[in-house]
Amino acid sequence: MNIAKKTYGFALVEKKKVAEINSMVRLFRHDSGAELLHIENDDDNKVFAITFRTPPENSKGIPHILEHSVLCGSRKYPIKEPFVELLKGSFKTFLNAMTFADKTMYPVASTNEKDFVNLMDVYLDAVFYPNIYEQPEILMQEGWHHELNKKEDEISIKGVVYNEMQGAFSSPEQILFRNIQHSLFPDHVYGFESGGDPDDILNLSYEEFIDFHKRYYHPSNSRIFVYGDGPVEDRLKFFHKEYLEEFAESEIDSDIPLVKPWDKPDEIEKYYPISADEDEKEKTYLSMNFVTGESNNLELSMAMGMLDYILMESPAAPLKKALLESRLGKDVFGSYNNHLRQPFFSIIVKNSESERKTEFSELLYSTLEKIMKNGIDKKLIEAAINIIEFHLREADFGSYPKGLVYCMEVMNSWNYNGNPIQALEYETSLKKIKSALTTNYFEKLIDKYLMNNAHRNLLVLSPEKNLAEKKAEMIRRKMASLKHGLSENDVEKMISDTESLKRKQSTPDSPEDLAKIPSLSLDEIQREAEILPMEEKTESGLTVLSHDIFTSGISYVNLYFDTTVIPKEKIQYLPILARLMGEISTEKYHYSNLSNEINIHTGGIGFANSNYVEDSDDSTYYPKMVVKGKALSKKLPKVFELMKEIINHTKFDDKNRIREVIQESKSRMEMSISEAGHSVASSRLFSYFSQAGKYNEITTGLSYYKFISDLERNFDERYPVLVKILKEITAQIFNKNNLLVSVTQFKDDYSAFADSFSTFLEGLRSASMVKHDYQFELSTKNEGLLTPANVQYVAKGFNFKHLGHKYTGSMAVFSGIARLDYMWNRIRVQGGAYGAFAVFGRSGNVYLGTYRDPNLRESLDAFDQMADYYRQFDPEEKEMSKYIIGTISQLDSPLTPSMKGSIAASRYISHISQEDIQKNRDEVLNTSSGQIRDIAEILDAMMHKDRYCVLGNENRIKEESELFGELVKVFE
Question: What does the pLDDT look like over 725-744, one tens digit per residue?
């Protein structure tokens, strides 16, 4: 389409065909000062985002609290939670908002044009005309407020963001990375916590909050991003007529200044909390951190990402190898953050001691000197380049819409007045970087940005016992002092304000206001479920699931080996085996060379211990060792050659290397537990009443963490037995009589697969096998899992099939209703937790859960009372339709080619037919309020089984110790 020089107030600044993403890209500037990047292509998963530069001036969390608050009602949509109404009834494929260190982004995505326009309209009205000006209680709810219910009660602090950040400040890694950023940029916007430090959030006033919105939420400070199919002119007209023409251009001082380079390095020590009886030994983090250039330099950003892999991530990484061999710590990793104007690069050692910081620094620099002197292995460089190149060309971002990923990429330049189009054109930068194969390109980067860079610091993060308790006690004293200083009238006012906020939170929106939120009708929803391509074939007597999908010339191969050939007492060694395969040496390759071969010739080869549950019965499940490989179809012979080498010829004789991999695996589990406590709690819960849940918990949950921790602690003693078992289970699992295969590719490439696969099978063992029927003893423990975290993760549930009920699609609708209605209001809005959810699994397992929750007993009570609430459920037809549409949108989330193949294969293994998928979809579409009330009865019966698990703050759980059958320390 030809765009006139000015269309609806938009002047075309630049227009360019960008071959890298096969799109026509246009950059516009509007009379209001807004800039718009429009990426036009045939992708129906359309993406919109509006982003504002929001530089913080303190750590009170204003950008983050505003991000929440503007979505709590606006001029055109004056209800309490338009965001929730969109979650209920939109056909969105993405709907969220994000606070970065210097910008706030509001992205949405949908495959439905009408819905897409609706989403844009609600978001634009929210950011430009929020209800925060008329309703101060929005700040109280989303930010913070004092809560006092009765005169004799203690004053408490509530607020969604306040509790979210309490959780964020409980994770050692989050504390580490926040301190790295703040310490590298003192007296700068990056020196403040844009998300909010809980201690500082309490000092935020309503006036500051409103002033921040007035200053920065203006079109002149905005960058609007649109991606996908749909007419350009229609988009311009919509933005202009509905919003932008109401604004005149304004001068807004929001530029992010460059930090002046330091003259000399710095050194700093910070602390993170551990429990009173937790061992402080080997719990310190040592990090060397460097400010490296500017993010609008695409070549440098790409190259530094590769350098991270070359030095710290690859098994062949020389710096990682030196740090591990020194036994400075038990895990080492690198990090490159380029979402700031001035990115930073970090080299981190975990499980160390603060007194070893000098040794760390000296070893780091002596190793870098050797690398520069001897040069980097060209194979390692080639592997690093190929990883990035494969990823860029594959453009498989999982469940994230492509447009959203491109939006984040362009903002790395655009937010700092750079050209956003150039941020998409990676070929030129890639070509320059490839010169590293014949020059000392990366050695020069090391010299400039690491060796001779004074803008760096050595940051030590050490454990401190009772730090969390000290902070909690300080807040208790502060609240007691506050209450003591209040007059009787002040106390009454605080009680009245608390009641008033709760009353407003619990008062339903009027039907008239709710009707203003645009929504689709059920008539606009496709009734037929998508059929994922799958043809069952036979190759050399084995079943092959072939998925004919256009994949841009890439083949995705999954090998599923049945692991029930392993006796029950050895199943905890399966995840260890999966972690080691491809990470230790084989007969042909040293582990460093093996890694290079994989990454030069393929898009990756990986091993995973997975479990697939029978659709009709959670006591029947199919554990598999899944070997995944992907590559250009012409490279399939190499994929199978490398798979065969790993499967048949892995050597378990490198004791130190196996120790390193196990230490790293334990370390990464600790990170996961700190970040995703809800997953640990729910996994433990399912182990109380589900055979499949017990297997999963033993192989992926807290039980496995305890197992691998014990193994790591007593490694020298247990090594001989470990090697013996690993060799035994390797021989038992990797057997052609034990194999199911799935391949996802364009049908023309199948013959290439069949030839390579046939050759692969010739070298695979073939033997008779004995399969084991695992039966676990199940018991209700109702555990409290003790950590230093400032928040809780509460989980309660049961299995409805054990009570004689069958899964129906209506249960998926109930999950959405519960999450976005009762649980959102009771647990998030009123209780202050960051998240709450209801999960109804096809296998019958159900759990209600909370995330970063300040409460414990109150949340369990809320779960118990939910059934009563839904016994009265009787919504208007339109409201019911919204819930159904929201459920369908989750069922219809766009899938990448590799995801389609994997999901089709998992359905095959679990005996879920297309008829089952269609039946469940029909049940979703035909869900009635009566069926929701019936499910409430099922839920009530499950809640009366009283099975629950809570992971969270040690003192808080001990205060409620009578609730628990057992108390378990998570970390030793």
Answer: 999 999 999 999 999 999 99
